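call fold(seq) -> C-alpha coordinates
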Amino acid sequence: MSKMVSVVQPLLVYYPVFSGGPALSLFSINSELGSDIKVTVITTLKGQNKNSYNHSLSDTHTIFYTKRFIHVFLDGLRLLNRSDVLQLSSLFFPPNIILYLIYTLARKKVIVSPRGELFDPALHQGRPMLKRLFLLIYKFNKSKTCWVATSKEEADVIRTKIEPTKIKIIPNYLKLKERSNCQHSWTRNILYMGRLSNIKNIHLILEALFLKKESGEIYQLNIMGEAWTTSEKQYKDRLQKLVNQFSLENQVIFHGHLTGKAKYSVMTDCDALFLVSSSENFGNVVLEALAYSIPVVASHGTPWNKLDKNQAGFFISGSLGSIVKALEEFDNLSNDDYRQMCKNAYELYTSTYQLSDGVKCWREVYIN
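ret:
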Protein backbone atom coordinates (compact mmCIF):
# COMPACT_ATOMS: atom_id res chain seq x y z
CA MET A 1 0.00 0.00 0.00
CA SER A 2 1.40 3.43 -0.97
CA LYS A 3 2.23 5.99 1.71
CA MET A 4 -0.35 8.70 2.36
CA VAL A 5 0.87 12.11 1.18
CA SER A 6 -0.43 15.03 3.25
CA VAL A 7 -0.77 18.43 1.51
CA VAL A 8 -1.47 21.79 3.20
CA GLN A 9 -3.02 24.61 1.12
CA PRO A 10 -3.45 28.09 2.69
CA LEU A 11 -5.93 30.18 0.65
CA LEU A 12 -7.81 33.45 0.97
CA VAL A 13 -11.11 31.86 -0.13
CA TYR A 14 -12.28 28.32 -0.86
CA TYR A 15 -15.45 26.23 -1.03
CA PRO A 16 -18.26 27.27 -0.94
CA VAL A 17 -16.95 30.70 -2.05
CA PHE A 18 -15.32 30.56 -5.49
CA SER A 19 -14.60 34.26 -6.03
CA GLY A 20 -11.01 33.60 -7.07
CA GLY A 21 -9.51 31.37 -9.74
CA PRO A 22 -7.42 29.20 -7.38
CA ALA A 23 -10.45 28.33 -5.23
CA LEU A 24 -12.43 26.68 -8.03
CA SER A 25 -9.51 25.00 -9.80
CA LEU A 26 -8.03 23.56 -6.59
CA PHE A 27 -11.44 22.40 -5.36
CA SER A 28 -12.00 20.56 -8.67
CA ILE A 29 -8.65 18.78 -8.37
CA ASN A 30 -8.74 18.17 -4.61
CA SER A 31 -12.10 16.43 -4.89
CA GLU A 32 -10.68 13.80 -7.27
CA LEU A 33 -7.13 13.09 -6.04
CA GLY A 34 -7.81 9.66 -4.56
CA SER A 35 -7.40 7.98 -1.18
CA ASP A 36 -3.59 8.23 -0.96
CA ILE A 37 -3.40 12.06 -0.97
CA LYS A 38 -4.88 13.97 1.95
CA VAL A 39 -5.48 17.69 1.40
CA THR A 40 -6.06 20.15 4.24
CA VAL A 41 -7.15 23.61 3.11
CA ILE A 42 -6.77 26.51 5.56
CA THR A 43 -8.87 29.46 4.49
CA THR A 44 -10.66 32.56 5.72
CA LEU A 45 -14.36 33.19 6.16
CA LYS A 46 -14.32 35.87 3.46
CA GLY A 47 -17.74 35.84 1.77
CA GLN A 48 -19.33 33.79 4.56
CA ASN A 49 -21.41 34.88 7.54
CA LYS A 50 -20.13 32.26 9.96
CA ASN A 51 -17.71 31.78 12.83
CA SER A 52 -14.57 29.66 12.63
CA TYR A 53 -15.26 25.99 11.95
CA ASN A 54 -13.89 22.85 10.31
CA HIS A 55 -15.53 20.89 7.53
CA SER A 56 -14.61 17.48 6.11
CA LEU A 57 -15.78 16.92 2.54
CA SER A 58 -14.26 13.42 2.67
CA ASP A 59 -11.65 11.45 4.63
CA THR A 60 -8.95 13.06 2.47
CA HIS A 61 -10.37 16.56 1.90
CA THR A 62 -10.67 18.79 4.98
CA ILE A 63 -11.16 22.54 5.29
CA PHE A 64 -10.24 24.75 8.29
CA TYR A 65 -12.07 28.10 8.23
CA THR A 66 -10.68 31.00 10.27
CA LYS A 67 -11.54 34.65 10.81
CA ARG A 68 -8.07 36.18 10.56
CA PHE A 69 -4.86 35.79 8.57
CA ILE A 70 -2.93 35.07 11.78
CA HIS A 71 -5.07 31.97 12.34
CA VAL A 72 -4.30 30.73 8.82
CA PHE A 73 -0.61 30.98 9.74
CA LEU A 74 -1.07 29.31 13.13
CA ASP A 75 -3.07 26.42 11.65
CA GLY A 76 -0.39 25.97 8.97
CA LEU A 77 2.29 25.92 11.67
CA ARG A 78 0.30 23.40 13.73
CA LEU A 79 0.13 21.06 10.73
CA LEU A 80 3.88 21.26 9.98
CA ASN A 81 4.89 17.93 11.56
CA ARG A 82 1.90 16.10 10.07
CA SER A 83 2.40 17.35 6.50
CA ASP A 84 4.59 16.38 3.57
CA VAL A 85 3.80 19.22 1.17
CA LEU A 86 3.00 22.93 1.42
CA GLN A 87 1.24 24.30 -1.65
CA LEU A 88 0.98 28.07 -2.09
CA SER A 89 -1.35 29.65 -4.64
CA SER A 90 -0.29 33.22 -3.93
CA LEU A 91 3.11 34.79 -3.33
CA PHE A 92 1.69 37.73 -1.41
CA PHE A 93 -1.16 36.31 0.72
CA PRO A 94 0.19 37.48 4.14
CA PRO A 95 0.50 34.08 5.93
CA ASN A 96 2.24 32.45 2.97
CA ILE A 97 5.68 34.06 3.13
CA ILE A 98 6.22 32.99 6.77
CA LEU A 99 4.86 29.49 6.16
CA TYR A 100 7.11 29.27 3.09
CA LEU A 101 10.22 30.01 5.16
CA ILE A 102 9.25 27.62 7.97
CA TYR A 103 8.36 24.71 5.68
CA THR A 104 11.52 25.11 3.58
CA LEU A 105 13.67 25.23 6.74
CA ALA A 106 11.90 22.04 7.88
CA ARG A 107 12.83 20.50 4.50
CA LYS A 108 9.26 19.94 3.49
CA LYS A 109 8.30 19.86 -0.18
CA VAL A 110 7.04 23.29 -1.21
CA ILE A 111 5.01 23.97 -4.36
CA VAL A 112 4.37 27.55 -5.47
CA SER A 113 1.83 28.60 -8.11
CA PRO A 114 2.01 32.41 -8.58
CA ARG A 115 -1.36 32.49 -10.41
CA GLY A 116 -0.43 35.54 -12.47
CA GLU A 117 1.09 37.58 -9.63
CA LEU A 118 4.48 37.83 -11.37
CA PHE A 119 3.16 39.62 -14.46
CA ASP A 120 4.20 43.28 -14.42
CA PRO A 121 0.65 44.76 -14.29
CA ALA A 122 -0.08 42.63 -11.21
CA LEU A 123 3.27 43.42 -9.55
CA HIS A 124 2.62 47.15 -9.90
CA GLN A 125 -0.70 46.92 -8.06
CA GLY A 126 -0.97 47.23 -4.27
CA ARG A 127 2.42 47.51 -2.55
CA PRO A 128 5.10 47.04 -5.23
CA MET A 129 8.06 47.70 -2.88
CA LEU A 130 6.89 45.04 -0.40
CA LYS A 131 6.30 42.62 -3.27
CA ARG A 132 9.91 43.11 -4.43
CA LEU A 133 11.13 42.20 -0.94
CA PHE A 134 9.00 39.04 -0.92
CA LEU A 135 10.36 38.10 -4.36
CA LEU A 136 13.94 38.28 -3.06
CA ILE A 137 13.01 35.72 -0.39
CA TYR A 138 11.36 33.39 -2.90
CA LYS A 139 14.29 33.78 -5.29
CA PHE A 140 16.82 33.04 -2.54
CA ASN A 141 15.08 29.73 -1.80
CA LYS A 142 14.36 28.85 -5.45
CA SER A 143 16.29 25.56 -5.32
CA LYS A 144 13.98 24.32 -2.55
CA THR A 145 10.78 25.05 -4.43
CA CYS A 146 8.79 23.40 -7.22
CA TRP A 147 7.20 26.18 -9.28
CA VAL A 148 3.99 25.48 -11.21
CA ALA A 149 2.76 27.75 -14.02
CA THR A 150 -0.65 27.55 -15.65
CA SER A 151 0.64 28.47 -19.13
CA LYS A 152 3.83 28.75 -21.18
CA GLU A 153 3.54 32.53 -20.93
CA GLU A 154 3.48 32.40 -17.14
CA ALA A 155 6.37 29.92 -17.08
CA ASP A 156 8.47 32.38 -19.11
CA VAL A 157 7.69 35.14 -16.59
CA ILE A 158 8.61 32.88 -13.66
CA ARG A 159 11.92 32.00 -15.34
CA THR A 160 12.68 35.69 -15.81
CA LYS A 161 11.70 36.85 -12.31
CA ILE A 162 12.75 33.84 -10.17
CA GLU A 163 15.16 31.73 -12.27
CA PRO A 164 13.81 28.51 -10.72
CA THR A 165 15.57 25.15 -10.82
CA LYS A 166 12.26 23.23 -11.05
CA ILE A 167 9.20 24.38 -12.99
CA LYS A 168 6.18 22.59 -14.41
CA ILE A 169 3.31 23.80 -16.58
CA ILE A 170 -0.16 22.58 -15.55
CA PRO A 171 -3.21 24.43 -16.93
CA ASN A 172 -6.23 24.88 -14.72
CA TYR A 173 -8.73 22.05 -14.88
CA LEU A 174 -12.28 22.58 -13.66
CA LYS A 175 -15.35 20.50 -12.96
CA LEU A 176 -17.87 22.44 -15.02
CA LYS A 177 -21.41 22.31 -16.28
CA GLU A 178 -21.36 21.59 -20.02
CA ARG A 179 -23.66 22.51 -22.88
CA SER A 180 -22.76 20.68 -26.07
CA ASN A 181 -25.80 21.30 -28.27
CA CYS A 182 -25.97 25.05 -28.82
CA GLN A 183 -28.49 26.26 -31.39
CA HIS A 184 -27.94 29.88 -30.44
CA SER A 185 -27.69 32.80 -32.86
CA TRP A 186 -25.61 35.97 -32.57
CA THR A 187 -27.84 38.53 -30.86
CA ARG A 188 -25.22 41.09 -29.73
CA ASN A 189 -25.54 39.96 -26.11
CA ILE A 190 -22.03 39.71 -24.63
CA LEU A 191 -20.63 38.65 -21.28
CA TYR A 192 -17.85 39.53 -18.86
CA MET A 193 -17.20 37.22 -15.90
CA GLY A 194 -14.67 37.74 -13.12
CA ARG A 195 -13.38 40.22 -10.58
CA LEU A 196 -14.08 43.89 -11.20
CA SER A 197 -10.43 44.91 -11.36
CA ASN A 198 -8.85 47.57 -13.57
CA ILE A 199 -6.40 44.95 -14.85
CA LYS A 200 -9.40 43.37 -16.62
CA ASN A 201 -10.02 46.48 -18.82
CA ILE A 202 -13.79 46.28 -18.58
CA HIS A 203 -13.90 50.03 -19.19
CA LEU A 204 -12.62 49.41 -22.72
CA ILE A 205 -15.59 47.15 -23.42
CA LEU A 206 -17.89 49.95 -22.24
CA GLU A 207 -16.10 52.41 -24.51
CA ALA A 208 -16.51 50.01 -27.43
CA LEU A 209 -20.25 49.74 -26.76
CA PHE A 210 -20.45 53.54 -26.69
CA LEU A 211 -18.66 53.88 -30.04
CA LYS A 212 -20.97 51.31 -31.63
CA LYS A 213 -23.99 53.04 -30.12
CA GLU A 214 -22.85 56.31 -31.69
CA SER A 215 -23.02 54.58 -35.09
CA GLY A 216 -26.50 53.23 -34.33
CA GLU A 217 -25.55 49.68 -33.32
CA ILE A 218 -26.74 48.45 -29.93
CA TYR A 219 -25.05 45.68 -27.91
CA GLN A 220 -25.91 44.33 -24.46
CA LEU A 221 -23.18 43.69 -21.84
CA ASN A 222 -23.71 41.41 -18.85
CA ILE A 223 -21.12 41.99 -16.11
CA MET A 224 -21.07 38.99 -13.80
CA GLY A 225 -18.70 39.47 -10.89
CA GLU A 226 -18.15 41.44 -7.73
CA ALA A 227 -15.71 43.97 -6.28
CA TRP A 228 -14.12 42.53 -3.14
CA THR A 229 -11.16 44.78 -2.32
CA THR A 230 -11.05 48.55 -1.86
CA SER A 231 -9.37 49.07 -5.24
CA GLU A 232 -11.94 46.84 -6.94
CA LYS A 233 -14.80 48.78 -5.35
CA GLN A 234 -13.25 52.01 -6.65
CA TYR A 235 -13.02 50.47 -10.12
CA LYS A 236 -16.67 49.37 -9.95
CA ASP A 237 -17.62 52.97 -9.12
CA ARG A 238 -15.64 54.09 -12.17
CA LEU A 239 -17.47 51.59 -14.38
CA GLN A 240 -20.87 52.71 -13.12
CA LYS A 241 -19.95 56.34 -13.78
CA LEU A 242 -18.92 55.43 -17.33
CA VAL A 243 -22.24 53.67 -17.88
CA ASN A 244 -24.01 56.88 -16.87
CA GLN A 245 -21.63 59.10 -18.84
CA PHE A 246 -22.13 57.04 -22.01
CA SER A 247 -25.90 56.64 -21.41
CA LEU A 248 -25.57 52.85 -21.45
CA GLU A 249 -28.01 52.21 -18.61
CA ASN A 250 -30.28 50.15 -20.88
CA GLN A 251 -27.38 48.15 -22.32
CA VAL A 252 -25.29 47.17 -19.29
CA ILE A 253 -26.36 44.97 -16.37
CA PHE A 254 -24.25 44.50 -13.23
CA HIS A 255 -25.35 41.07 -12.03
CA GLY A 256 -22.95 40.81 -9.10
CA HIS A 257 -21.51 37.44 -8.08
CA LEU A 258 -23.79 34.66 -9.34
CA THR A 259 -23.62 30.91 -8.82
CA GLY A 260 -25.64 27.85 -9.80
CA LYS A 261 -28.85 28.24 -11.78
CA ALA A 262 -28.74 32.04 -11.71
CA LYS A 263 -25.27 32.03 -13.26
CA TYR A 264 -26.10 29.59 -16.03
CA SER A 265 -29.38 31.37 -16.75
CA VAL A 266 -27.39 34.48 -17.68
CA MET A 267 -24.79 32.48 -19.62
CA THR A 268 -27.50 30.72 -21.65
CA ASP A 269 -28.57 34.02 -23.21
CA CYS A 270 -25.04 35.31 -23.95
CA ASP A 271 -23.35 35.03 -27.34
CA ALA A 272 -19.68 35.63 -26.48
CA LEU A 273 -17.38 36.09 -23.49
CA PHE A 274 -14.94 39.02 -23.53
CA LEU A 275 -11.73 38.77 -21.46
CA VAL A 276 -9.43 41.64 -22.47
CA SER A 277 -7.13 41.75 -19.43
CA SER A 278 -3.74 43.48 -19.43
CA SER A 279 -2.35 40.22 -18.01
CA GLU A 280 -3.87 36.85 -17.16
CA ASN A 281 -1.99 33.71 -16.13
CA PHE A 282 -4.87 31.52 -17.35
CA GLY A 283 -8.46 32.73 -17.15
CA ASN A 284 -10.83 30.13 -15.67
CA VAL A 285 -13.79 32.02 -17.11
CA VAL A 286 -12.59 31.09 -20.59
CA LEU A 287 -12.93 27.40 -19.71
CA GLU A 288 -16.38 28.04 -18.29
CA ALA A 289 -17.47 29.70 -21.51
CA LEU A 290 -15.94 27.05 -23.79
CA ALA A 291 -17.59 24.26 -21.79
CA TYR A 292 -20.90 26.02 -22.33
CA SER A 293 -20.32 26.41 -26.10
CA ILE A 294 -19.77 30.17 -25.85
CA PRO A 295 -17.09 31.66 -28.15
CA VAL A 296 -14.47 33.81 -26.44
CA VAL A 297 -12.71 37.06 -27.28
CA ALA A 298 -9.42 37.17 -25.34
CA SER A 299 -6.58 39.68 -25.37
CA HIS A 300 -2.89 39.10 -26.01
CA GLY A 301 -2.47 39.60 -22.24
CA THR A 302 -3.99 36.13 -21.82
CA PRO A 303 -2.54 32.75 -22.93
CA TRP A 304 -5.49 32.02 -25.24
CA ASN A 305 -3.96 32.23 -28.75
CA LYS A 306 -5.51 28.81 -29.43
CA LEU A 307 -8.90 30.53 -29.83
CA ASP A 308 -7.87 31.69 -33.30
CA LYS A 309 -6.22 28.38 -34.17
CA ASN A 310 -9.36 26.45 -33.26
CA GLN A 311 -11.81 29.06 -34.59
CA ALA A 312 -13.42 29.17 -31.15
CA GLY A 313 -13.40 32.96 -30.91
CA PHE A 314 -10.93 35.78 -31.50
CA PHE A 315 -7.47 36.49 -30.05
CA ILE A 316 -7.03 40.27 -30.11
CA SER A 317 -4.57 42.91 -28.95
CA GLY A 318 -7.01 44.16 -26.32
CA SER A 319 -7.02 47.74 -27.55
CA LEU A 320 -10.27 49.65 -27.93
CA GLY A 321 -10.08 49.34 -31.70
CA SER A 322 -9.54 45.58 -31.53
CA ILE A 323 -12.59 45.15 -29.28
CA VAL A 324 -14.74 47.13 -31.74
CA LYS A 325 -13.38 45.02 -34.60
CA ALA A 326 -14.22 41.79 -32.73
CA LEU A 327 -17.83 42.92 -32.35
CA GLU A 328 -17.94 43.64 -36.08
CA GLU A 329 -16.42 40.22 -36.84
CA PHE A 330 -19.29 38.56 -34.98
CA ASP A 331 -21.80 40.76 -36.85
CA ASN A 332 -20.38 39.52 -40.15
CA LEU A 333 -20.77 35.83 -39.33
CA SER A 334 -23.68 33.91 -40.80
CA ASN A 335 -25.85 31.92 -38.37
CA ASP A 336 -24.20 28.71 -39.57
CA ASP A 337 -20.71 30.13 -39.12
CA TYR A 338 -21.53 31.42 -35.64
CA ARG A 339 -22.99 28.05 -34.57
CA GLN A 340 -19.88 26.31 -35.92
CA MET A 341 -17.78 28.63 -33.75
CA CYS A 342 -19.92 27.60 -30.75
CA LYS A 343 -19.29 23.96 -31.62
CA ASN A 344 -15.56 24.62 -31.98
CA ALA A 345 -15.53 26.27 -28.55
CA TYR A 346 -17.02 23.19 -26.91
CA GLU A 347 -14.67 20.84 -28.80
CA LEU A 348 -11.63 22.87 -27.69
CA TYR A 349 -12.71 22.39 -24.08
CA THR A 350 -13.46 18.66 -24.31
CA SER A 351 -10.31 17.82 -26.30
CA THR A 352 -7.84 19.73 -24.12
CA TYR A 353 -9.11 20.34 -20.59
CA GLN A 354 -10.50 17.12 -19.15
CA LEU A 355 -10.39 17.10 -15.34
CA SER A 356 -8.92 13.58 -15.25
CA ASP A 357 -5.81 14.87 -17.05
CA GLY A 358 -5.36 17.59 -14.43
CA VAL A 359 -5.73 15.10 -11.57
CA LYS A 360 -3.03 12.92 -13.13
CA CYS A 361 -0.66 15.90 -13.43
CA TRP A 362 -1.14 17.05 -9.85
CA ARG A 363 -0.83 13.54 -8.41
CA GLU A 364 2.56 13.30 -10.08
CA VAL A 365 3.66 16.63 -8.56
CA TYR A 366 2.55 15.66 -5.04
CA ILE A 367 3.89 12.10 -5.02
CA ASN A 368 7.16 12.33 -7.00
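DSSP finds 14 helices and 14 strands in the chain.
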